[in-house]
Amino acid sequence: MNSKYTKNNPNPEIPKALRDFVIGNTYDALVAIQGSTIVEANDRTALLLGCASKDELIGKMPTLFVTPEYLPIANERLARRISGDTPTDSAIYDCRCKNGELLRVEVSIMPWWPSEPILSVLIVKDVTEREKHLEALRGSERLYRTLIEQMPAGAMLTDHNGTIKYVNSKASKLTGYSIEELCQKINLFHPDETEAHRCYDLAFSDNPTSGTCETRFIRKDSSTMWVSLSWQPVYSEVDGWCCVNTIFTGISEQKKAEAALRRSETRYRGLIESQQDLIVRTTPDGRFTFVNNAYCRMFGKSAEELIGSSFVPLVHTDDLPSTLAAMELLDEPPYRATMEQRAMTVQGWRWLAWEDCAILDSSGNMVEIQAVGRDITENKLAGKALKKSEKRFRTLVANIPGAVFRCKYDEQLTMQYLSYEIEDLTGYPAMEFIGNAVRSFVSVIHPEDTQRVTDAVKAGAMSGKNYVVEYRVVHADGSSKWVMEKGQAVYDADGHTLYIDGIIFDITGRVMAVRALQKAHDDLASAYELQREFLNNVTHEIRTPLTAVKGYVAMLLEGVAGPISDEQKSLLHRVMTSSDHLLELVSGVLEVARLKSGTVAIRPRACNPCLIIDKAISSILPQARIKGIDVLVDQPTNRPLGMYDGDKLSIIITNLLSNAVKFTESGTIEIKVTSNTEGTEIIVVDSGMGIAQSDLETIFDEFQQLDYPRKHKATGFGLGLAIVATMVETINATLTVSSEKDLGTAFTLYAPTLNAQ
Fold first, then answer.
1. d(CA 746, CA 740)
2. How far is the C-alpha of 518 from the C-alpha of 611, rounded, in Å?
3. What is the pairing mode between strands 679-686 and 667-675?
4. What DSSP state is assigned to residue 312?
5. For the whole model, what pTM was predicted?
6. CB neighbours of 737 closer than 8 A, spacing ≥ 6?
7. Strand pairing report for 336-345 and 348-360
8. Over the Cα atoms of the chain, what is R_g?
9. Is residue 26 helix, strand or coil?
């Protein structure tokens, strides 16, 4: 046998056992090669490569179907086999079928006989869908990871046992604890926040609930911070309630998802590991006539235990009806059937995919059933895990106060994912932007801002850093909204930009507030300028002529223009008095304007406030005695020095005392003084005419005068208290008033000490 199949005999007869093995296999594509030429193949191979029959393959080289980039690998493996070396691992190639379709296949080389390298068997498995599924899974993980990193909030995932499975870096930055410390179940709640803590604990009860609250956390440095906290249970179709998603609102940067990625890699590792197929033969009624070693290992039984027994007890009762229904197809051409079922293995219930083929006798009667199966449990679980991952991702995105997106790095920023919040910003549904189905996202950016946005995205992609740009979007109703976009580029292994991931926030309110503030500032500056011009005009246009009038009147009174009569002198004195009153009015208006303009400086100096009060009291005593008013003073014996603006404090107190004398016909005026190193309090109480409640709100306004008890109008212009109120504000003091009509009035002034300048 060894001398029959050698390189010196390149065209030997193919052994019948080899042909039967290749032709009889109905699940995998099998090819027998002699040297590097196909000498036998099964129908599965022809179907896989798009050939009408296996005869089209005979005599051809198997590498004919391998794409150019994988041809060196395929040739090297064949050369190793021909040289006597058998590659123990399988290889994945891109294969082009006869019809031009591109497939992804896994190829294993099996020697027909170890000492005969010229005869080999190629096992070809179509893994196109598996590779696509794996790539989609990896893309979902990249999208999940990138969006979490861009989320402006701290995030935590906690399992049903209370174990923290994931914490992002923003949560660490907010709390001051390291991620490792947070994973040790640190209680962040403030001791007084028992109700919030209790509500949060309900998320881990038998009936978990979601919720939001505002509460306080204790940071690592023992400081207290307020946070807006939200939590929501996450459910899995496989495990039910599995974890709780916790979000700290206001956190927007950088997270670490390495632990989550490692967990994901562990869950999906089974999808990329090779699976050994199961091969069995049964009688038409389902009793085993042959089982291979892989089947024995999976079910933990020997071939002797299985031969003659039925496969039915191994199948899950829920899947048995569909299995038997599929097997009824074996009675009719093409005598093939496929099915998926759960079976009880040594690893528990596992999902198996089977392809059955009827074996017929010469009369066309089915004598046996050959079945080839493989374990697809990982594929099933991977699909559920993907749904679980997507649901978890959507839960996180739903808590983000903005529109989350992923777009291509192209001129139109073609959207691949866009959350529903974009409709609030633009008025258009998210689906209209996906793949530019109806419109591109660039089309809703304000034309004046388009270049600035594209420049910011390009700069972010070139630098590898986050970018932030503010711009306007045009709403469907024609209005414009201001938004802030924060994003980051995603790169492939070669450093080429694949996508842009980011979040878009509505900042229209903030922009409008800034604009309103700027307008108010401009209006205030304009008003101040008008006021300054008015003061200048008053100074030149009123005070100068009045001064001249007084000068001329004085000259007339002195007889410079000749003798004047007593009647003329009386009239000139009235002119002089009216001029003084008018100058007093102008000076008062100028003083109020000067104080309100903010240009009056405070001049603190060390002084005794009680001495200032004594001086003010002395100035009003003569008038009080004329009217028969008793002035009662209560001052402390200890008179501490302090920093005060003595001039302004004197003006304020003198005005308050003068008003008390002015509006009190008889009775008393009481003055109570309290002074310490922090400030001085002066209370002035009179028993005069009092102030009506309707007048209390306006007594500090300019040109406001109270009704005088006498028949003629009170003297003055209503500027005294206006000046007092403005000076009180200037020296950071406070002034309150209480009064009852016909009972009297009380003014309370508190003047704090000032810092030296």
1. 9
2. 46
3. antiparallel
4. G
5. 0.30
6. 691, 696, 699, 745, 746, 747, 748
7. antiparallel
8. 48
9. coil
Residue 106 burial by Cβ neighbours in a 10 Å radius (0-12, 13-18, 19+): middle
User: Distance between CA 190 and CA 175 in Å, rounded?
Assistant: 12
Q: What's the token pair of residue 603?
A: 């001049």
Q: 286-293: list long-range contacts, CB under 8 Å, 24+ apart.
A: 286/310, 286/311, 286/312, 286/327, 286/369, 289/368
Q: Which of 632, 625, 721, 618 is nearest to 673 (CA)?
A: 632
- Measured CA distances, 5 to 30, 75, 82 (Å): 20, 21, 12
Nearest to 232 by CA among 386, 389, 394: 394
- Phi, psi (deg, nearest 5) at residue 393: -60, -45
In 3D, which of 133, 142, 201 has the Cα closest to residue 393? Answer: 142
Locus of tokens 């701290």: 154
Q: What is the DSSP string of 724-743?
A: HHHHHHHTT-EEEEEEETTT
**Contact assessment for residue 658 and residue 620, using Cβ atoms and an 8 Å cutoff:** yes
Minimal CA–CA distance to 681: which of 652, 723, 719? 652
How far apart are alpha carbons 394 and 496 in whole angstroms? 28
As a whole number of angstroms, the longest Cα–Cα distance in the chain is 163
Q: What is the pLDDT of residue 711?
A: 41
Cβ(18)–Cβ(42) below 8 Å: no
Query: Which residue positions in the chain have pLDDT lower than 70?
Result: 1-13, 26, 113-117, 141, 144-152, 236-241, 249-276, 383, 385-400, 525, 528-548, 550, 552, 578-601, 698, 700-720, 756-757
CB 392 within 8 A of CB 370: no
- Residues 338, 354 contacting (CB under 8 angstroms): yes
Task: Tell me the three state secondary structure of residue 196.
Answer: helix
Both structure tokens of 691: 């102030």
Q: Which residues pair with 424 in a beta bridge?
A: none
- pLDDT of 409: 92
Give the containing element (helix H, strand E) for 218: strand 211-218
Please count the other Cβ atoms lying within 10 Å of the Cβ belonging to residue 686: 27
Phi, psi (rounded to 5 degrees) for 335: 60, 40
pLDDT tens digits, residue range 323-351?
999 999 998 999 999 999 999 999 999 99
Beta bridge partners of 406: 417, 501
Q: What is the distance, to the nearest Å, from the Cα of residue 19 to the centroid of all Cα atoms in its chain?
A: 64
Contact 484, 469 (CB under 8 A): yes
CA dihedral sign, ordered 609, 615, 616, 618: positive
